[in-house]
Every structure is written in C-alpha cells, then in structure tokens.
Amino acid sequence: MLLPSFVPEIRIRDLRDLTRSRASLSEEASRIMSRIQKVLEDANVKLASVATNTVGKSGLAMLEALIAALALCTSNPQHRE
Q1: For the chain, how big is the Rg over CA atoms in Å?
Q2: 14 in helix, strand or coil?
Q3: What pTM, to 2 d.p., does this model score?
Q4: Contact criterion met (CB below 8 Å) for 47 and 63
Q5: End-to-end C-alpha distance for the chain, whole angstroms
Q6: Are the C-beta atoms of 58 and 51 separated by less than 8 Å?
Q7: What is the pLDDT of residue 77?
Q8: Would you put residue 44 in left (φ > 0), alpha (ψ -120 to 50) or beta?
C-alpha cells in the first residue's frame, strides 16, 4: 500500500507560490538589465564606465538625455552636426 503524499495547507502553498514568483521576477529583471547593457555596448555607448548602475537614477537620467538629444537631431536637421 502506498503512503499518502504530503500536501501542505493552502497558506503554505500560497507562500511558496509567492516566493517562486518573486524569484522569477527578480531573474527576469536581471535579464532585462543585461540586455539593456548589451544593447548599449553594441551601440558603442559605454555607460557602465560612467555609471555603476545603468538602470539606476543617474543611469536612467543619462539614457533619457541621450534619447532627447537623438530626438532633437532627427527632428531638426540643423542640429545634426
């Protein structure tokens, strides 16, 4: 005869699900940060040498400034130089 499997109570199962979800989201955030860093490096933007955290407050401010400058250059041909 087989012994019954242990099935934890619903609170424990929910807690385990939340823990797994949190770990999964954390891994996904790390993958996204790595992809951002790789795209910047491929575009020859060496943001990591200036900012320790590319997606931190100062890193994001620098990225927004780069995007604004690019938008200005593409919208106004006089600013291309």
Answers
A1: 23
A2: helix
A3: 0.69
A4: yes
A5: 82
A6: yes
A7: 64
A8: left
pLDDT at 78: 67
Q: Which of 54, 52, 12 is nearest to 34 (CA)?
A: 54
Q: Along the chain (81 residues), what's the average pLDDT of each consecutive run of 10 residues?
A: 89 97 96 92 87 87 90 72 54
Question: So what's the pLDDT on residue 45?
Answer: 87
Tokens of 25: 């989201």
DSSP string, 26-81: HHHHHHHHHHHHHHHHHTT--GGGT-S-TTSHHHHHHHHHHHHHHHHHHH-GGGG-
What are 23's two structure tokens?
């770990």
Asked whether the beta carbons of 62 and 45 are under 8 A apart, the reply is: no
pLDDT at 73: 82
33 contact partners, CB below 8 Å, separation of at least 6: 54, 55
